[in-house]
Amino acid sequence: MKICRSNGLRTIYSGIICDEKTTCSVWKVQFLVQEKHNKLLSAIISIGLLSFLGIVVETALNITFPQLTTYFSIPISQVQWLTTGYMLVSTSLIPLGSFFLRRFRVVTLFRVSCLSFLVGTLIASFSNSFNLVLLGRLCQGIADGIALPLMFAVVLDQVPKKKVGTFMGIGSLVIAFAPAVGPIYGGIIQDTLNWHFLFIILIPIIMVTWLLGELSIEQSSPVHYVPFDVRGGIFLAIFLTTTLMFIVNLTANSSSFKLYLFLLGTAFFSGLLFLLNEKHKSHKLLELSLFKNKRFLQLLSAFFLLQFSSLSMSYLIPNVLQILFAQSPGLVGFLIAPAAVIDAVLSVVAGIIYDKTAPRLPIISGCIIIGLTFLGANLFTPSIGGLVLIYMLFMVGLSFSYSNIMTYSLSQLPAGLVNDGNSIYMTVQAYSGAVGIAISSSIVSLLQKQQGSVISGTKWGLAINFLILFFVAVFTISLCLIALRNKVIKGDKE
Q1: pTM of the model
Q2: CA distance 459 to 323
Q3: What is each CA distance from 424 to 188, 245, 285, 391, in whole angstroms?
Q4: Measured distance between the N- and C-terminal CA atoms of the chain, rounded to whole angstroms
Q5: Separation CA 408–CA 414 (nearest Å)
Q6: Domains within the chain, CATH numbers bracketed
Q7: Mean pLDDT, the chain, as a whole number?
């Protein structure tokens, strides 16, 4: 309602009579708030897109492995280094996310990530040498290792606490949608184009993403010089790479006992040296004292088990559909796509519920849905429709619990430890997924050998995996109930 007078314009705004100057100020503030909100959303999306593209390429490459083995005339075990090498580099850098954020501006880290991803993509796009393609993938791994913790760090640092669940859901949406796109993308490339286009098509997308980030990323926290602990960094890198190599080699039939022993021994001693080194450092790479926080450790363990289950399912469902029901890779991509879409969309919905209600509601509900899903999976005979439905229901439960566990856990930490907690969560995410794939695939391979039949072995392998995943779900529910047993209310910041 506006009242015109000779001495100026007056407005009733929110029940208060204001003059023209005050009204303009109110609208200006609203405009600035909305503009900041939009820039923050664009910043999160631009950073998240780098991780999205990394996952898309990784899942698409799995589809094109047969084409690559023929093109380069090399065994599939060598081709697999395109994903293994990527994982080794990425997971070695993720724990350093907290140090990077203390030392460098967000936009600087984003630029390094974009440049590394672009250079890696260009190398892979126009190379006819496997070693050069591998080099390109290693460069992409550097980008992912920097970008993955960076996105959630921006959310936790710059988003108002009352909306952090929603924005974490948006960040999860960007990443969750990638597994649906990757297999379809890889299948289309394999059927219609040369494998080079797997990378070539990404080039303009990376450039647009870079531009979007340059226009939207802002710095909210101060940065200062922090010395890098070279010795600690070396010990940590050796520990992470040898541990991951051990996990990866669990599925390699050719791996020897001596190799397992060497990897385990190296991982043990490098991990011990890292712990001893960090104990006496004033500038730590990671604040390991977080593991003394019971609630943090309980929720981190639940997060580990959920990611373990997620990657187990991402291996089991596509492979079983191909082996037991003779579905083509391209068709399998379309069959599992709805599950990934559900996960992506509901991640945002779950974030909104988190912001509007008690954190316990979406977390516990999601875990219970997962538990009931695996209970049902153990009671029914597998079919194409049944497996697709099980995967969809699992993703419903995952979307409500997964990112919200991380959101709540990190929200309870002191401000100075949030980035360390975020780096730990991202590291656990990478390793739990590798463990999930390693164990589920090893069980299937073992049963195939034992049964002397791929079909029969796959059926038994699927059954045992579903049984294990049910008990994992029950344990996950228990962990969440214990961690959230205290009264948790909306906006709780205990």
Answers
A1: 0.81
A2: 9
A3: 36, 19, 11, 28
A4: 44
A5: 13
A6: 24-227 (1.20.1250.20), 290-494 (1.20.1250.20)
A7: 81
